[in-house]
Amino acid sequence: MAKQETSLFNPNMLVELANTRMPFGKYQGYRLCHLPEPYLAWFKQKGFPPGKMGVLLETLYEIKLNGLEYLLIPLIKK
Questions:
Q1: What does the pLDDT look like over 5-16, one tens digit per residue?
Q2: Pfam family example for this protein (predicted)?
Q3: Backbone angles phi, psi at 48, to 5 degrees
Q4: What distance lies between CA 78 and its chain's CA centroid?
Q5: How far apart are CA 32 and CA 2, in angstroms?
């Protein structure tokens, strides 16, 4: 029997990354997708916050690190 693969990736996360606003800190009110990479790198070094926001920020860090942020632009809701 073939082992069924399960994906931990949720496609809705990209929509969240494009539209959720930063709830705290220096960039409070900014859409997550507009956070600068050095700010995300700082979190990578110091530790991402716990919970869903930490998961979103860590995912965004990986997206920006790999130059894939262009994928989020069409998902921004006006």
A1: 445 667 799 999
A2: QSregVF_b
A3: -75, 150
A4: 19
A5: 39
Token output for 46: 């110091």
pTM of the model: 0.85
Ranges of each domain in the chain: 12-75
Select from 8, 9, 27 the least CA-distant residue to 68: 9
The pLDDT of 63-76, averaged and rounded, is 94
Can you tell me the distance from the alpha carbon of 26 to that of 24, in angstroms, rounded to the nearest whole number?
Answer: 7
Q: How far apart are CA 7 and CA 47, in angstroms?
A: 24
DSSP 8-class letter at 27? T
Amino acid identity at 10? N
CA distances from 54 to 33, 35, 44 (A): 14, 14, 10
Token readout for 70 is 């262009």
* pLDDT computed for residue 9 by the predictor: 66
